[in-house]
Structure formats: structure tokens, C-alpha cells
Amino acid sequence: MKKSEIRKGFWIMFFVLPGLTVVFIFILLPLFISLFNSFFNWQQLLRREFVGLENFKRIFFAYPYQERFFNAIKNNVKWLTLNLLVQNSIGLLFGYMLSRRIPGHGFFKRVFFIPVLFSLVAVGFLWGLYLRPNGLLNEFLKLIGLGELVKPWLGDEKLATYSLIAVNIWRWVGFPSLVFLAAVDSVPADCMEAAYLDGVGEWKLFWRIVFPLIIPSVTVVAVLTIIGSLNVFEQIYTMAGLDGGPNFSTDTIGTLFYRTAFGSVDSGNPAIGIGSAIGVVIYLATFIVSMGSIAATRSREVEL
Questions:
Q1: Is 20 inside a domain boundary?
Q2: Helical H segments across the chain, by residue range
Q3: 211-265: pLDDT as tens digits
Q4: Could you report the per-residue pLDDT of 209-226, keeping only the tens digit for each?
Q5: Which of 178, 166, 161 is nearest to 116 (CA)?
Q6: 102 inside domain
Q7: Which of 237, 238, 236, 228 is nearest to 122 (CA)?
Q8: Where in the sequence is the domain holding 257, given as residue range(s)?
Q9: Three-state SS for 43?
């Protein structure tokens, strides 16, 4: 092997190794520890006998874990569906509009992205105050003569999860907006000009030319949205608490995992084995759905 190849390999490892170390310590190692812990019965913080897949069976088939788990899955599906469809669609619309250099586009670009910079805990706490029965939102509705729309936004089982998702969309919509703006700006200008010369309308221009060329950005945004939606925790914790109230209508896999691992669902004591099993399920669900999203969007990519 030539010295130049050895030197090249050394510099590759020099730059790649720190990233791999971080991935191993903070992602792979906790995953393997959780998987290992899920195969054992636990008494408080003490590991006891090996039970194989028993903890996983309890999640899927034993009361009350089965009921709580599938309820949490249902709520995570709501988060995932609405974030993918609503948040990313609005972000795509905003990004495309900003790429058209509408008047004040620089101002709007900053306004859309500012909420992304806010602390998630601070956003959750403030919006929790705004959505109280006597909070800012209801008082504003009364002020403008829409008192009939006043609701207990976080106290109604039918509204609580959707209220949380709406706040999440408000906070994060600026991120896909800027990603899609950068993607649209990278579309070759000659393609756009040729389409305009051929008399292609704005709608057909977007769907036939722009959108196929920004599919890689759509893939990235979709995967990040999936990861965030299946692992949502902080916002629910600050706005609705860990008990999933009202009546578990805001419970997700993340809050169920925390409540189970640090205070069991049925006994109030920590159930680290079952909590670890839930953590493994979260990882597998995130991985499978993310890979499916990548496969679905990659199939539509085009090259110039």
C-alpha cells in the first residue's frame, strides 16, 4: 500500500472517527443496553432473572400495558400523519413562495424560522398558559366576538392532542420552509426559463419540474419529521404532563416509556425491563417507518 493511500486513510479516519464515536456512545450503546435490559425481570433498580421476550409479550398482550401501548401508538400516528401532511405541506408552500421572491420575502423568511430557535420547554410552557380555559387564546376569541369557539383546549379529550400538534406545527414549520427554499433555489434556472418559454403554468411547473428535482430534500424533511413525531416527549411533558391526561388522550410512546421505566403503569414502581422493551419498540418503529419513507421518496428522484 502506497504512503499516499495510508495518509489518505488516516485523514478519513481522523475526520470520521469523532462522529462514529458520538453515534456509538449516544445511539448504539443505549440501544444495546435497552435491548439487554428488556430480556430481564427487574425489582426496582435490581436486575433479576432472565425472562426472554416476556416483557415484549406484556406490552402487546397483558393488561394494562396493551391498552396503554396501543393508545400511545394511535396518538403517535396522529402526530406523524398531521406533521407529515400539514406541517411539511405548509413548509413546502412557504418555501416555494419565498423562492418566487415575493415582496418582503426576507422578512417572512426570518419570521417563519424564529419559532424554531425558541427553547422547546419555553414554547411548551407558554403555550400551555395560552391554551388554558382563561388563557390568552380564549380571551382573544372573546375579544373579537368569537366566544362560541372558546374551548378547554388541553382539557378536552377530543382537542388535547390536536392542540399539541398545532403548537408543534407552529414551532417547526419554519425548518422545512427554509430547507425547501434552498432546494427550489438550487433548481437550474435554465429549466425554469425553458418551461416559462413553453408557456407552462405555475402549478404544472411546480409538479412537473420543481418537485421531482427537490425530492432529496423532501426525503430528508420526511425522515426528520418521522423521527421527531415518534419520539415526541418534551412538548407533551411541559404542556400536558406525564400522565397522558385527560384520560390518556395525549399519551405517546415517549411518555409511556418514561412513566413505565421510572414508575410502572400498574404498580407505581419502576419497571425497567418493560420500559426498555418499549424503548426498543420505539427505535424499531422509527427505523422501519424512516426506511419506508426513504424508499418511497427515492423511487421518485430524477437526475438532470
A1: no
A2: 3-23, 29-37, 54-61, 65-82, 88-99, 105-117, 120-130, 136-143, 160-172, 174-185, 189-197, 202-205, 211-213, 215-230, 234-239, 253-262, 272-298
A3: 888 998 999 999 999 999 999 999 999 998 888 888 899 999 999 999 888 876 6
A4: 888 889 989 999 999 999
A5: 178
A6: yes
A7: 238
A8: 52-298
A9: strand
